[in-house]
Amino acid sequence: MGIIGIEKETLKTMIQENVKTLYRKTLETALPEEIYQAAVFSLRDFITDKWIKTHETYYKEDVKAVYYLSMEFLMGRFFGNALINMGMDQVVKEVFAELGIDFNTVEDAEPDPGLGNGGLGRLAACFLDSLATLELPAYGCGIRYHYGIFEQKLENGYQVEAPDNWLEDGDPWGIRRNEYAVEIKFGGHVRAVPKENGGYRFVQEGYQSVMAIPYDYPVIGFGNNTVNTLRLWDARAKNRIDLKSFNEGNYQKAAEEETLAKTLTDVLYPADEHYQGKELRLRQQYFFISATVQRVVERFTNDHDDFNLLPEKVAFQLNDTHPSIAVAELMRVLVDENDLPWEQAWEITKKVCAYTNHTIMTEALEKWPLDLFSRLLPRIYQIIEEINRRFCVELMEECGNNPEKIRRLAIIADGQIRMAYMAIVGSHSVNGVAALHTEILKNHELKDFYKLFPERFNNKTNGITQRRWLLHANAQLAELITERIGDGWITDLSQLERILPLVEEEAFRERFMEIKQANKMSLAKYIKSAKGIDINPDSIFDIQVKRLHEYKRQLLNVLHIIGLYNRLKMNPGLDMVPRTFIFGAKAAAGYHRAKLIIKLINSVAEVVNHDQSIGGKIKVVFLENYRVSLAERLIPAADVSEQISTAGKEASGTGNMKFMLNGALTIGTMDGANVEIFEEVGEENIFIFGMSADEVQEKYNKEYDPWSVYNMNQEVRMAMTALIDGTFDRDTGLFRELYDALLNGFGGSRADEYFILEDYADYDRAQQAVDYAYRDKEKWAKMAICNVAKSGKFSSDRTIKQYATEIWNLPTVPIDF
C-alpha cells in the first residue's frame, strides 16, 4: 500500500484498462511510452483528488499565495519524482514487476521537457518541490513552450540543434483550463478617455491579441496531502481563422492570428541576435506575465473589494529580470482596469513584488530598445515612463541636481529600458542567491541602489531538493543513509550531519565507496552504449556539466587536459591515477565561441582516446544533450566536481550542491556558493584554486598581459601551441580564434578575459592534489562522506523557508484529507 492507499491489484487493473482504452492494445503489445502514459493516467486519478482538496482549502481559508514567475521551469521527468513524493515508488515497481514490465524502460520512455536553459529553470523546479513539501500555497507561472531548449546532437564534433518536441506523444500531466483564458494585447495605440473626476482612463485600441490558455501541472509535496500547481500558459488565436479572407483566396491573411499565436509559444528563448528574435522574446515575457497578473487580480476581486488587502493575499516573486514587466503590468491592471489612484496602486505593487537577481555580469541585466518596446507594448511603455519620471524626481530630492547620477540610475536611459532597475524600484525586496553574490551586488554592480534602498537588499543562498537529487537519483546511497540515521533527512537535510561520526567506521566507508563504484560502473556501461567509448571504472571520474559559457571556463579544463596529455606523451610512464574527464554542456545557438569550445573538447577526445601510447591513463567524453535525466546518471557517479568559473562571475551555482550531496569532491574557485561549501566542509575537504573575486577585479583594473604567463610557463605554452599546430585540427586553423582570444583578444573581447592562463598553474596544482588524495582510499572516503554530511545547508527547503518568512510572510497551510 502507498500512502495514498492504492491497492496493487487495483493499480494493475487500471494500467491494463488504460492501455486498452487509450491505444487498443494489451500490455504485451504496448510500447514503453504507451505503458508510461497509461500508468500516469492511472495515478492521476488519485493525485487529482488531493489536488482539488488543496485548492479548495486555499480558497476556503482565503490564504496568501506566492506566484513564482519564471521564464524557465526545468522540471525533469515527472513520473519517478511523483512516485517518490507520493510514497508509491516501491508499490509501482512491484506492480510493474508482477505485470512483467521493466520499470526502468517505462521511466526512460518519458520525455524530459527542456523548458529551461540550465540553473535558473532547475532552481525554479526545486523551489516548487520545496514549496509543496513545506505545505506553502504556491503557483509556478511560466510558458508551455511547444519546443523546449533544443535537443543537442553532435556532428563531427560540432553542436547541431534539433527541435525538442516533448509534446509529440501527448501531455499526460497537463490539464487544460479553458475557463481561465485571458486576452493579451500587443501593439496598436493608446487613447486617453476623460473620467468624471477630471482624470483620464487609458484605452488600448487597434491592437492585435491572442488568448492565453493555462495548462495546470501537479506539484506533489513529499509525504503530505499538498498538491500545488505549475501553471504554464499556451497561446491560441482569438479567432482561429478569418473565413472571409480564406474564401477570398487570401489564405495567409486568413491564418495570421493563428500563426502569431503559434509562434508566440513555439520555442524557448528564440535567438535574439536579430530584431525579430528580440521582439518575440519580449512578446513571450509580456504574454505570460499579463496572463498571470490578470488572472490573479480577477481571482482576488471575486472575494475582496479592498485592493489594499492585495499584498496580504498575493506575493509575486520575479525570478530574474525576465518577469520584471510584472511591475508595470500590475500597475496597468490596478490603474486602468480597476480605477485605483496611481499612488495607491504603486504602494500596493511594491508590497506585492519581490525580485531575485541571478547575475553579476552587467551585460546580462536585460534591457529593451525604446522603439521596439513602445511599439509592441504602448500602454506598458507609458506606465514605465511615468514610473521613471517619478523615480527621477525622487532622485533629485535625494541627490540634488546630479544629471550623471540620475542617468546612471534611471530606468529609461540611453535609448533603453533597464528592466533590472525597474524590478528594484518596483519591489520591496531584492535578493542575491549566494553570500558572495549579494555582497558584490551591494558593493559593486548595484551599489547606488543599495545606498538608496539598503533595507530591500538581502541574501537567499540557492538550494536543491534532496528528494530528486539524492532519494531519486542515488537510491542506494539514500538507502544506506536511511539505514543508519533514519529517513528524517528527506525533509530536514541538516540531519545528514549525523553521518559525520560514521567516517571513522570502516564498514560504513566501504559500503559508501561500493555504492560510488556501482554508480561509476553503471555510468561506464551507459557511456559504452551511448558513445562506444571504453572507460575505466577505477579511474577518477572528473565531471563538468553545465551550460557552456566562457566564464564557466570549460576551456580551462580542456586546456589542462591538453597539458596533461603532453606530459604523458613526453613521459608515458608518468605516475598518475587514471582520469576520465566527462563533459556535458549546451551552447546557446548563436554563441559561436562556446560552440567552438565544444568542438575542441570533442577533437581532443578523438585524439586522446585513440592514442595507444598513453596507456588509457586519460579518457575524454562529451555526452550530448545534457538534461536533467542525464544529470541524474552522472552526478551520483562523480568523484570530482568541476566548479571552476572565474571568481566573481558565477552568482551561485546549484550543480556544485548536487555533486556535494552525492559525495563528489569539489575542485573550484572561491566563487558563488563554492564559498559557502568551503565554509561548511573546511579547506581539507575541498580543492580550492585561483584568484579571489577581489583579485580578479583588481586584475581587470590593471594591465594584464597573458603573454607573460605564456612565456613563463612551458606547459601553458605547449598546450596553447597544440591549438594551432594541427594536433587537434589537422592544420585547418580551426582553433586559432581560441588561441587569439586568450593571448591577444578577439572580436572585441580583451585578451584572456576570464583569466584562464592566469589561473592555469594553480588549477594544475589543485588537480595534482586531487591525484595525490585519491591514492589514499581511506582519506578520500572520509572526505567524500564529509561532503555529504555537510550538505544540509544547501537544501531548497532551507532556502524556501527563508523566502517564506523574510520576504513573502507566507504561513503554512496543512491539507486535511
List its traits.
817 residues, alpha/beta, Rossmann fold, 10-stranded mixed beta sheet, 6-stranded parallel beta sheet, 23 strands, 49% helix, globular
Structure notes:
GO terms for molecular function: glycogen phosphorylase activity; pyridoxal phosphate binding. Keywords: Carbohydrate metabolism, Glycosyltransferase, Pyridoxal phosphate, Transferase. Its EC number is 2.4.1.1. Belongs to the glycogen phosphorylase family. This is Alpha-1,4 glucan phosphorylase. This protein is α/β, with parallel strands linked by helices and 817 residues long. The mean pLDDT is 94. Strands 1, 2, 5, 6, 9, 10, 11, 12, 16 and 17 form a 10-stranded mixed sheet that branches. Strands 20-19-18-21-22-23 form a 6-stranded parallel sheet, sandwiched between helices. A 3-stranded antiparallel sheet has the order 13-15-14. It is globular and about 90 Å long. Helix 1 crosses helix 2 and helix 6 crosses helix 34 (796-808). The protein has 34 helices and 23 strands. The two termini are 17 Å apart. Helices cover 49% and strands 14% of the residues. Helix 27 (674-681) links the parallel strand 22 (665-668) and strand 23. The chain has 2 domains: 62-77 and 112-462, Glycogen Phosphorylase B (Rossmann fold, 3-Layer(aba) Sandwich); 503-794, Glycogen Phosphorylase B (Rossmann fold), CATH 3.40.50.
